[in-house]
Amino acid sequence: MDDYRDQGQRRKLVDLLRKKGITDQQVLEAIGHVPRHLFIDDTALRAHAYEDIPFPIGCGQTISQPYTVAFQTQLLRVGRGMKVLEIGTGSGYQTAVLVQMGAKVFTIERHRPLHVRSRERLEDLGLRARTYYGDGYKGLPAHAPFDRVLVTCGAPFVPEALVKQLKPGGILVIPVGEGDVQRMLVVTKDEAGISHQVDMGAFRFVPMLGEKENG
Ligand code: SAH
Fold it and tell me: What pTM was computed for the model?
């Protein structure tokens, strides 16, 4: 259910994100459309869905703070019809924002219960995305290359496979750093296939886990 109160709260969230410096109109419109409360199962937490904070979603993971979603999506410069690979489906909220912007989204999650739940939820909302259960470090070679790659967990380094699966002219947005704080890196691949990187500041993410790690 998405009633007038939810919609009103969403408009306020969009105003707040604008005040915090998000300028990309497509990003703001998508956040204004996607019912974030429906990506939070815990009914007590749902009441706070439009506050600019992260929430637990099970398996020790979180749905990212709306500002972080907006900031990463803005850096990604998504256009309609672009092929976008997301690492860390989690709740599916970021996936939904990308779908809402007209991207063809491929998304990978390494926790099976989150993969299953987010797939159901996106389907219920009529949002078409290709969801995969697997290891984000490997990307999706069978579907590469991608126009954009977005990593929504804190990676210890930039995985080579993800850069490889980027088209020339493509953009990879990835928070990198071990420990509590990561640097938001924007890696661009030029037409000659050479990658360049820019640091866009400090953020906090749950860690990107390897195949055999628990978490
Ligand atoms: N985009 C999500 C954010 C979820 S938090 C949302 O909008 O809700 C990051 C997610 O990355 C978690 O669900 C975590 O399980 C997942 N993750 C961690 N390491 C991963 C890996 N190696 N491959 C794929 N997903 C991973």
Answer: 0.97
